[in-house]
C-alpha cells in the first residue's frame, strides 16, 4: 500500500493494471487541477491502445479463475473491500473534494451512496440464484443459471469520482466478471485509491483495472473484441456515441445520458421546506449532478412566494473552497466549464428571462484563480429559451410558470430528457396523478433528488438512457449476467420411445 501512496504523490499518476501501478506506454498526459485554486496538482496519463490491450489482456487472463470462484468467496472479498472503504473515507473524501471541488460534506455523502452499492453486491450468493421448476413435464425438471459475461468496462464522468464507478464495478465483479474502469482524466486519483483498497481486500490481480484516458482510450475499449459489455455515464451526445459504437461491435451496453430535471411545486406545498429542498438540489455540487434539479415548474399561486423564498435563501449561500467546513458550494470543475456556464447566464438574460440572482463576476479572496461562479436564479423562463433547452450542468436554477398540474406534466413530458423529476405537494391525489402520468425514469414526491437506494436501479428514460437496463439493483445484476436455461430428464428403460422428428412437448 505504501508504494502506491508514494506513486500518487509524484507528478504523473500511474495506471492500475494486473494488480499494481503501471506506467502508461506513452508520455501523453493531461493536467489535473484543484478547481478552488486553479493550480495543477498532478498529471493524469492518457492511456493509448497499447495500454488498453494490456488491461484487457490482464482482465481476460483473470476471468476464468474469478468466474469459478464461489459467489460466497467473492462476497467475502467485497465485504472486506467495503470495510476498507469505510476506514479510508477521510482520504477518499479529501481526494474527491481536491480534484472535483465539491464540499467535503457533499463528497462524503456521495461516497456513502457508492459504498452502499458494495453492500448490495456483497449479497452475490443470493443475487445470483437462478430459478427452478420441478416436473415441467413428466419426469422433466428445468432450472436457470446466471453466468458472467467476461471482461466488462466502465466509462465514468468527472462529477462523481467514487459514486458512479461504484454503481458499476462492484456489481460486475460480484457477478463473476472482470472489469476495466476508465475514470475521467479530470479526477483520476479516487479510482486509483479504490483499486489499491480492493487489492488489499484480497481481490486477485487482473480482476479490477484502472486506465485514465481520453477518446483514444474510450474508442479502444468500445472496439476491443475481448470486451463483452460497456457501462457509461455522461452527456447525451457521448452516451449515444458510446451506445452506437459499442453495439456495432457486438457489446452489451448501458449508457446513461444527460438530464433536465424538473421539480413541480404545487400551491399547497410547504413552500419554506420546498425552497430549502430546491436549493440543495439545484446548487449542491455547484449543479454538476445528473440528478440536479435545474428547472422548477411553479403551479399557479406558488410562483411569487417561492421566488421570494429562493432569493432570500440563495443569496445567503457561501461559495468557497470545498475543503472549508463552512462552505455551501464549491467551484466548477474547470475554467472552460465555468466560462461555458457563464455563457448560458448571458444567453438567459439576453433572451428575456428575469435574472433574479446573478452569479457572474464572483471572486473569492485568496482564491482569485479558482473556477468559481455564484448561484444564479432565473424567473419567467419559457421552453424556447436556451437555458431551458440545454443541460447547463452548473449552479443555475430556472423557474417556469404554469396554471395547472396537467400543464406541468405535459411540459415535462415534452422534454427530450427524462432522468429524474419531483413534485412538492400535500395532496396524495396530485402526487399519485403525477407519478403515474409522468414519463421520467426516477420520481420524487417531496424528495428533490430521487436517487434510488442501491437495491433499486438507477436510470432514466428517453434521451437520458441508451440501452435497456439501468445501473445497480437487480437490473445491474441482469446487465452483468446472461441466463442459461437447463432442461433435464433422467429416463428409465421403460420410458424409452422410438425416435421421432416431431417437435418435442413435455406434457
What does this structure look like?
With 507 residues, this protein is an alpha/beta fold. Helices cover 39% and strands 22% of the residues. A seven-stranded mixed sheet has the order 14-15-16-13-12-18-19, with helices on both faces. It is globular. The model is unreliable at 1-10 (pLDDT under 50).
Number of helices: 17
Number of domains: 2
- Strands of the widest sheet, in order across it, are 14-15-16-13-12-18-19
Task: Provide the CATH architecture of the largest domain.
Answer: 3-Layer(aba) Sandwich
- Average pLDDT, rounded to a whole number, is 95
CATH topology of the largest domain: Aldehyde Dehydrogenase, Chain A, domain 1
CATH class of the largest domain, named: Alpha Beta
Main sheet makeup: 7 strands, mixed
N- and C-termini, Cα separation: 61 Å
Shape: globular
Alpha-carbon Rg, integer: 25 Å
Q: Which regions contain 5 or more consecutive residues with pLDDT less than 50?
A: 1-10
Structure classification: alpha/beta
Percent of residues in helical segments?
25-40%
Spell out the CATH superfamily of the largest domain.
Answer: Aldehyde Dehydrogenase, Chain A, domain 1
User: β content, as a range?
Assistant: 15-25%
DSSP, total strands: 22
